[in-house]
């Protein structure tokens, strides 16, 4: 959101973002008086659109007086480039129904506050980002039906087609876990997992069972048995995992909702890579019964969707109790966390965060995260996760050697090797991280990149995938080990590639976190 | 071009405009290396177009590498707003074939020079500004043919339809002079005026004879006998005069070229009001034989056209000798002259001048014009003009009382009242002005507003028209009394209304002045 060197004079970011909020709200309300007030008076003010320029605040006001309002739009990225302590060049990207737009505004602050001195607007229709053909590959779906399980026919999720991750029990089907040897020995499930049942009760239907990374112990979306699902939003790139098939199906439009799991980022990562809204609930807020475990201290069942309104409705259905619906007073931003992402990703996430701040009217506050903390919390998490993963699946893997790929086998092997003292030390770090984050989230909701980069190339190879995983785990494992809910907003762009902005809320604040989506897109 | 207070630090306008020139030329040549160099390197640089934004110089360069060049475009207005001594927000408007575009650029200067840190581009087709129906009214045409006089069928002006002002002899027709009583007593002309003959020899045809203000002694385009021609570019506004019908016909597309006269601005003013290219030649460079005189010391025969290429070809045909084709080294700008126009008009003309500077690569230099000089030279001109006008038509008017409207009669009456001493004093001022301007034009070509405002409302009334005329005469009479050529470029916009930028060159430099149009539009 800023390209300033630290030595530059302080900037009134709060004032600028508040002015942007006021502008957007006035535009949507066609509040001409406020819009006129926010444009600098005088003959030199500029407004460009399409093929022409209006020069002078009088001509701009005259145009506005007869325009009759602007079409509804929702900010997705607000790129702020400071041109001085009291001036900024702002480029805001927005979505509309079936379209998108860009506005450039040059803002200056004078004794009367922040005002636009020049603006440039463009926009138009955009092709639907959905390619129904892209997700027909067997790398995405293990089982498909028409539907596989019918919905109740009514309810808030009527007509919503769910891609169920192949860790979740579907009555009459086996759980495959992304490993053919697991599928072979799996029993036919007698009942739906309770989480799935809640979606069905709300009217959703099961479109099919979607592929997962092997035993969910990967963030890449590469499965050597079933293949790598096509990422419809990032051709040539991996979809992310382990909820890879659910993400690919939803991104391709062959499903509307992905029901998946997130232990270390398995919903947030494919959400980020495939441009989807992702929700990891508070640990324990959604039942994990009937779901193949990985590391029970951290396992959650959550959702992916193309739009915020569907995610919000489905998340509400999944939550047993509405819980805390409080709204934060401030959005928190940490330079340390942003710098865990690539510079391009950090800029993209900052632009998405500014859009969130403007759209919600919430101010942004910078907070300190010690530079060495992420490496420490990631290492501790990985130790506990590996030990629990071995506890979950060690017996099976010992009985079936060679049934998972070497990289996954190595992760389980690391878990087998964790000693008791090492585990205790790691749990202490987790506990301290949790206490620290609880304090932080009492101040406001923490915003950070969902992943350290956009989706890696399918050709990145094991080393490339491992590097992406290691970078991203420093960001994802914070919520995982602290049990707090996380919402991934697919608003960042690095070139054409999506990348997520992740918002962490206090434990139990899932309903409030989902409510953040209200007004941020078509209902 | 600037909104700076005088106390602000000096600004590198020359460097910025040179960078803009380099950018435009590289864009037209698809010189990707230069374009890449002119965009600031790094991940924060922005380029917006349509529905999306590219973030980062690498992504912008990748886009540019495969774009394969941009469509030809010609700058018309470059609005420069300084955001600091080393930074400017630039909004440039351009024309394309059948379209137009706008680009916003935020430029900053660092140790490597001026670079773009953010850009926003839009554009598209524009409706043809021509309404063939609008000029069928008898206020525009006195006589029309199909054609009235056929052309030679070949030559550089083949197919060009000329609207001949009703002061110019057309063989077989009478000259009407905008006064029915004059028409009644006028003989049928035996031959075309030599200026018209030159156009016909070059292949043009005569579409008809277009109305004029009464005896050409007005700048408004209102004629109480024939009416006020529709100004197709400015509905509800006067077309300007006295070449009013020619301008209206060309603007409406029922003619391609207006052959008119300019004594005190009678081509430049309707050109400015109707959005046309206008050329007043060096006094004496185009023969005035066969043309009804007004004030022979200042009378010229010149042209109006919708596009620069037609004006350039027709002007070349009109000039007996090619003359001096030298190009200036600099464009001169005077704050005093700009401030004779309304603030909106001055800003519009500054934007047009910046576009001319960028398109030609010529630097802009500010020159001093004493604040009291324009009033003095205007008064002197009006004295001499009125005296000569009375000498031209006093006998007729005395013999035909009441045949012209009161405002025109008053101007002639003022001419009758000019005494010998007053005339001598006025001629001295004219001579001094001429010497001063000759010195100035030896440095570069002087750029000023064609008119002090865009076209006044048709409802402005005698006082409104007189005020517009008085303001504009301070600008137009400089070229008139000095006999220098003037080129009106219809590039300024005040709201939707056109307003001209006028370029004055040394006496005899007509060919060079017309050559300035090369490369400034479609050939």
What is the topological layout?
The structure is a homodimer of 523-residue chains.
Chain A (H helix, E strand, L loop, with lengths): L12 H17 L2 H7 L7 E4 L2 E4 L1 H11 L6 E11 L2 E10 L2 E12 L2 E13 L15 E9 L11 E5 L14 H6 L8 H8 L3 E6 L33 H9 L4 E5 L6 H7 L2 E4 L20 E5 L2 H11 L12 E3 L1 H4 L4 H18 L3 E3 L6 H27 L6 H11 L3 H24 L1 E5 L11 H22 L3 E9 L2 E8 L5 H6 L8
Helix pairs in contact in A: 1-2, 1-10, 11-12, 11-13, 11-14
Features:
alpha/beta, disordered N terminus, 2 domains, Amidase signature (AS) enzymes, six-stranded mixed sheet, 17 strands, homodimer, 523 residues, eleven-stranded mixed sheet, globular, Nuclear Transport Factor 2, Chain: A
Question: Any overview of this molecule?
Answer:
Two copies of one chain form a homodimer. Chain A is globular and about 80 Å long. In chain A, the strands form two sheets. An eleven-stranded mixed beta sheet of chain A has the order 7-9-8-10-12-11-16-17-15-13-14, sandwiched between helices. The first copy, chain A, has a six-stranded mixed beta sheet with strand order 2-1-6-5-4-3. Chain A folds into two domains: 13-127, Nuclear Transport Factor 2, Chain: A (Roll); 132-331 and 338-346 and 352-368 and 427-515, Amidase signature (AS) enzymes. Chain A is 36% helix and 22% strand. Mean pLDDT of chain A is 95; it is low at 1-6. The longest helix of chain A is centred in the last third of the chain and has 27 residues, at 373-399. Chain A contains 15 helices and 17 strands. Chain A is an alpha/beta fold. The interface between A and B is large, with 49 and 49 residues.
């Amino acid at each position: 959101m800023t390209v300033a060197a630290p030595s530059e004079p302080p900037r009134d970011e709060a004032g600028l973002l508040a002015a942007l909020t006021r502008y957007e709200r006035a535009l949507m309300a066609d509040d001409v008086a406020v819009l006129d007030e926010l444009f600098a008076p005088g003959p030199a003010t500029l407004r460009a659109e399409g093929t022409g320029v209006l020069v002078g605040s009088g001509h701009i006001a005259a145009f506005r007086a007869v325009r009759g309002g602007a079409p509804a739009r929702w900010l997705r990225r607000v790129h702020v480039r400071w041109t001085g302590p009291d001036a900024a060049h702002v480029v805001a990207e927005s979505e509309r129904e079936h379209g998108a737009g860009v506005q450039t505004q040059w803002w200056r602050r004078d004794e009367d506050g922040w005002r636009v001195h020049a603006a440039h607007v463009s926009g138009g229709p955009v092709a639907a980002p959905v390619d129904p053909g892209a997700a027909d590959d067997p790398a995405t779906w293990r089982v498909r039906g028409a539907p596989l399980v019918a919905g109740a026919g009514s309810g808030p999720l009527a007509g919503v087609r769910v891609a169920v991750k192949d860790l979740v029990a579907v009555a009459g089907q086996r759980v495959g876990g992304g490993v053919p040897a697991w599928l072979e020995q799996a029993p036919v499930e007698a009942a739906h997992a309770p989480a799935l049942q809640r979606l069905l009760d709300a009217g959703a239907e099961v479109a099919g069972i979607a592929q997962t990374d092997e035993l969910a112990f990967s963030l890449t979306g590469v499965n050597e048995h079933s293949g790598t699902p096509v990422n419809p939003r990032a051709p040539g790139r991996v979809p992310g995992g382990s909820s890879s098939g659910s993400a690919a199906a939803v991104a391709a439009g062959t499903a509307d909702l992905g029901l998946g799991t997130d232990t270390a980022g398995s919903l947030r990562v494919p959400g980020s890579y495939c441009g989807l809204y992702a929700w990891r609930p508070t640990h324990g807020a959604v039942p994990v019964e009937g779901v193949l475990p990985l590391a029970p201290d951290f396992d959650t069942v959550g959702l992916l969707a193309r739009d915020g309104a569907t995610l919000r409705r489905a998340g509400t259905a999944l939550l047993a109790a509405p819980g805390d619906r409080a709204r934060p007073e401030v959005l928190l931003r940490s330079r340390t966390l942003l710098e865990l992402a690539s510079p391009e990703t950090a800029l993209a996430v900052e632009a998405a965060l500014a859009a969130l701040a403007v759209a919600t009217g919430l101010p942004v506050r910078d907070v300190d995260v010690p530079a060495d903390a992420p490496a420490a919390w990631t290492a501790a998490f990985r130790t506990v996760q590996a030990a629990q993963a071995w506890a979950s699946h060690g017996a099976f893997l010992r009985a079936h050697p060679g049934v998972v790929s070497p990289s996954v086998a190595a992760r389980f092997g690391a878990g087998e090797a964790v000693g008791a003292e090492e585990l205790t030390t790691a749990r202490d770090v987790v506990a301290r991280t949790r206490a620290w984050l609880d304090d932080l989230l009492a101040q406001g909701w923490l915003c950070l990149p969902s992943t350290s980069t956009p989706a890696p190339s399918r050709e990145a190879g094991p080393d490339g995938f491992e590097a992406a995983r290691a970078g991203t785990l420093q960001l994802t494992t914070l919520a995982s080990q602290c049990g707090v809910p996380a919402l991934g907003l697919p608003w960042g762009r690095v070139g054409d590639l999506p990348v997520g902005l992740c918002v962490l809320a206090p434990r139990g604040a899932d309903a409030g976190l989902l409510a953040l989506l209200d007004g941020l897109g078509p209902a």
